[in-house]
């Protein structure tokens, strides 16, 4: 099995795990977890090949996808799905540093991008290799802290930072285009000095190519589908947070190929 | 003699010569010709007017093993960046040192946007932070050294440009700074927090020699728990004088720590001082005066019902 096939296999298994979490006691943020999942698989694959590279899931509500992917790549040994959201377990609805492989607490939107910028800057100051891949949501771009951070990244030329935007078009209360549309994102990021790459956010091979850092800070605008992999929910804003029955979970998983 | 603000810059510049991990971050309020920038340009970054991002970026640096010191005015470092401080320095416990001049009303005529009478409430609400309000050059230097040596998050509140000759040994580890020692446990002890309160208490104690005077530099709960025992052993009544609101202040904390003692508060009260003037003028407008300290130090006469008038 080559690297891409392995990554796709991991993504499929992780998707099934997210469905299991949606069928757990508390449900989960299914839509955004499924949209970002391939991005996370690609990001960790790129980071594994580049020592000193930190992956930060800034859209922390997609914790289910993060735990599932970290389990698939062996960072979390136990299966997090039956433990998600339960008392005494570290697998909270937004990730924190008690979870293996998680360095920063995220979920309050915008902070992860800034932590990642700090980490990337640390590589330069320490004279060590690596950088940071921050994964943000498109709705998250409504946070002022994101743009404050971009300003600092541009001013201080933090070239080791790659920002991946999971452009799934949805947010908690509906569609981004209805609530606070994000016009002309490529031009906005270009104006902050970022190299802009647009790609299919569910093509892991293309994502892995896009995530290899360059000379300038980079943004990867990854076009994704909310709830990708669950046809009954794909593209629907209502998939943002989902709690399903175990029978429905079996149905959804069986349909995944 | 240097102000606390300048002592911070000077001390950190000296410390960085022996500690490669130290990084100096500013958010456009460090002033020109910053000594750290001149001595260690590769480790000095003015991140611009971006306090929230600055705290988060400092957290990222700290998590990578560096020791960032980030400075901006107290009102912005605590309130503008409050959530970043909560998550990064509180929840995560990243060893970032947030050094904030313009504490209290040292900003004077700059007005309420630049006053900070609520910063300690923010910092003190976050478990794990060490919090210092040093008085004068020597104590500021001691606090910066202690902060650099500890792998812990820390908030340091400074004032503006005035200099202070502090009449007590600098506190590096939470000691009580005794200006006038308390006696046999029956006396009234003034407890000052910060530079101007230390001055007010000093003048009050000159006028009433029966009053003891203790200065507190470290005011996080961990430090106050240690100080409370020492204060309680020497005095029956404590009069806490602080340039801060009542909520989240030191008097309230000591009252909870010492339920058998009488703890009184002289603080900034509830008003928003929105007229010009210097630091002392604003303090007077707030009622932080020597007569107010003396009034609080005198036991109130009891009514026939046993209450306090």
From TrEMBL, chain A:
PANTHER family: TRANSKETOLASE N-TERMINAL SECTION-RELATED. Belongs to the transketolase family. Residues 55-244 form the Transketolase N-terminal domain. SUPFAM superfamilies: Thiamin diphosphate-binding fold (THDP-binding). Its cofactor is thiamine diphosphate. InterPro entries: THDP-binding, Transketolase_N. It comes from Sphaerisporangium aureirubrum. Keywords: Thiamine pyrophosphate. This is 1-deoxy-D-xylulose-5-phosphate synthase N-terminal domain-containing protein. It comes from the Bacteria.
Automatic annotation (TrEMBL), chain B:
It comes from the Bacteria. Gene3D superfamilies: 3.40.50.920, 3.40.50.970. CDD domains: TPP_PYR_DXS_TK_like. Residues 2-166 form the Transketolase-like pyrimidine-binding domain. SUPFAM superfamilies: Thiamin diphosphate-binding fold (THDP-binding), TK C-terminal domain-like. Transmembrane segments: none annotated. PANTHER family: PYRUVATE DEHYDROGENASE E1 COMPONENT, TRANSKETOLASE-LIKE PYRIMIDINE-BINDING DOMAIN-CONTAINING PROTEIN. This is Transketolase. It comes from Sphaerisporangium aureirubrum.
């Amino acid at each position: 099995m080559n690297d891409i096939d392995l990554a796709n296999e991991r993504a499929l298994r992780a998707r099934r795990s997210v469905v299991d979490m949606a069928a757990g006691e508390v449900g989960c943020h299914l839509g955004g977890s499924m949209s970002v999942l391939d991005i996370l698989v690609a990001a960790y694959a790129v980071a594994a090949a580049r020592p000193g590279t930190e992956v930060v899931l800034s859209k922390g509500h997609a914790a289910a996808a993060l735990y599932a992917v970290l389990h698939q790549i062996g960072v979390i040994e136990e299966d997090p799905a039956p433990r998600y959201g339960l008392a005494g377990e570290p697998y909270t609805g937004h990730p924190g540093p008690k979870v293996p492989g998680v360095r920063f607490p995220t979920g309050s939107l915008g902070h992860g991008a800034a932590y990642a910028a700090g980490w990337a800057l640390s590589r330069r100051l320490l004279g060590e290799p690596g950088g940071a891949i921050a994964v943000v949501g498109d709705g998250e771009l409504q946070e002022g802290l994101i743009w404050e951070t971009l300003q600092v990244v541009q001013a201080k030329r933090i070239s080791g930072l790659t920002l991946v935007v999971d452009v799934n078009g949805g947010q908690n209360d509906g569609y981004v285009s209805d609530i606070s549309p994000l016009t002309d994102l490529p031009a906005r990021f270009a104006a902050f000095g970022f190299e802009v790459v647009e790609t299919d956010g569910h093509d892991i091979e293309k994502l892995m190519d896009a995530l290899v850092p360059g000379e300038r800070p980079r943004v990867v605008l990854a076009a994704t589908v909310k709830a990708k992999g669950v046809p009954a929910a794909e593209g629907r804003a209502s998939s943002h947070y989902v709690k399903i029955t175990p029978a429905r979970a079996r149905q959804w998983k069986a349909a995944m190929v | 003699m240097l102000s606390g603000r300048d002592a911070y810059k000077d001390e950190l510049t000296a410390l960085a010569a022996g500690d490669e991990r130290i990084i100096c971050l500013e958010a456009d309020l460090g002033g020109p010709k910053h000594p750290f920038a001149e001595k260690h340009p590769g480790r000095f970054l003015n991140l611009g007017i971006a306090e929230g991002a600055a705290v988060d970026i400092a957290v990222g640096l700290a998590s990578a093993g560096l020791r960032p010191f980030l400075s901006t005015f107290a009102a912005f470092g605590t309130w503008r960046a409050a959530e970043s401080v909560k998550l990064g320095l509180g929840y995560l416990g990243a060893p970032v040192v947030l050094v904030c001049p313009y504490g209290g009303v040292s900003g004077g005529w700059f007005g309420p946007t630049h006053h900070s009478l609520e910063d300690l409430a923010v910092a003190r609400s976050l478990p794990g932070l060490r919090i210092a309000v040093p008085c004068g050059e020597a104590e500021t230097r001691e606090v910066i050294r202690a902060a650099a040596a500890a792998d812990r998050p820390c908030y340091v509140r400074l004032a503006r440009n005035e200099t202070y000759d502090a009449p007590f040994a600098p506190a590096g580890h939470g000691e009580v700074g005794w200006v006038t020692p308390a006696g046999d446990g029956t006396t009234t002890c003034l407890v000052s927090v910060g530079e101007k309160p230390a001055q007010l208490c000093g003048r009050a104690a000159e006028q009433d020699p029966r009053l003891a005077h203790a200065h507190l530099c470290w005011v996080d709960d961990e430090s106050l728990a240690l100080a409370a025992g020492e204060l309680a052993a020497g005095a029956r009544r404590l009069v806490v004088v602080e340039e801060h609101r009542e909520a989240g202040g030191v008097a309230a904390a000591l009252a909870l720590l010492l339920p058998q003692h009488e703890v009184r508060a002289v603080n900034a009260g509830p008003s928003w001082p929105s007229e010009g003037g210097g630091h002392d003028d604003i303090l007077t407008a707030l009622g932080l005066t020597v007569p107010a300290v003396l009034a609080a130090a005198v036991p109130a006469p009891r009514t026939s019902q046993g209450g306090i008038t």
